[in-house]
Amino acid sequence: MLLIDKYAYTNRLRDFNPMAKFFFAIGILILALNIRDYRFNLGIFLFLLLLTVGVAGIPLKKYIKLLCIPIAFLIISLITILISCSPKRELFLWALPLSKNYIGITREGIITCRHVFFRAMACVASTYFMALTIPMNQLIVVFKRFRLPKVFIELLILIYRFIFIFLEECKEIHTAQEMRFGYNNRKNSYKSLSLLIRSLFVRVMQKHEELIISLESKLYDGEFKM
Asked: Alpha-carbon distance 87 to 100, whole Å?
């Protein structure tokens, strides 16, 4: 999250029209979802990879690192699609007997996995292009131009703010525990983790109370002035 936010504010396209970037990313996303040709989706992925890395200036190693997160979930999903179960052995390219049925890989399963994989990668690349090139302040401007409800935008701002509070507090507690050898063995790791969760909950709630006091001192009337 911190890495994405960092590049959103420092990429080469940060000063480009945010509305154009938003429409471009959403348009590519819609195309990837509606066109079933895996070659087209592969082309979208490679094009957005070139645009994000070559034009926006996002480091390739960091981009690949970000891709590893959705790919891990995608592989788990693809395994469930790839493996089939049927009593007919001739349907499988490779199979193992399981009671009266066979479990294995079919040609249709491979084709489906191929389409799902490249479609998902095209969608991820489109989402990452938007996340890595449109800072949050520009995204809020886009939402305001769409006349989205103020409640939605306010919630977005608060959630965005508290994500960083959560990460910052978690990092401080974890660093303090590591300096006291809180993770030098399994027993201490479990104990430190439970203490981290408890302390993190308390400190985040304290930050919430401080935010409420700050808003009340500024005569908050239930609406953020944006």
From this structure: 6
pTM of structure: 0.77
Interval 120-126 mean pLDDT: 93
Within the chain, residue ranges assigned H as helices are 2-10, 18-34, 38-50, 60-82, 107-133, 136-145, 150-179, 186-217
Phi, psi at 106, each rounded to 5°: -110, 165
Q: How far apart are CA 45 and CA 122, in angstroms?
A: 5
* Closest alpha carbon to 226 in 166, 164, 141: 141
Give the SS3 label for residue 162.
helix
Task: At 13, list the tokens.
Answer: 């396209």
Question: pLDDT per residue over 170-207, tens digit each?
Answer: 888 888 888 888 888 888 888 888 888 888 888 878 87
Helix (H, G, I), strand (E, B) or coil at 104: strand
What is the spatial distance between Cα 152 and Cα 144, in angstroms, rounded to a whole number? 10
Residue corresponding to tokens 């052995």? 89
Do the Cβ atoms of 118 and 74 come closer than 8 Å?
no
d(CA 66, CA 209): 34
Q: How far apart are CA 48 and CA 34, in angstroms?
A: 17
* Assigned token pair, 160: 């965005």
What is the helix (H) or strand (E) element at residue 93, kind and residue range? strand 92-98
User: Can you read off the two tokens belonging to residue 206?
Assistant: 């304290």
Strand partners, 97: 102
Segment 56-101, tens digit of pLDDT: 889 999 899 888 888 988 998 888 888 888 787 777 787 788 777 8
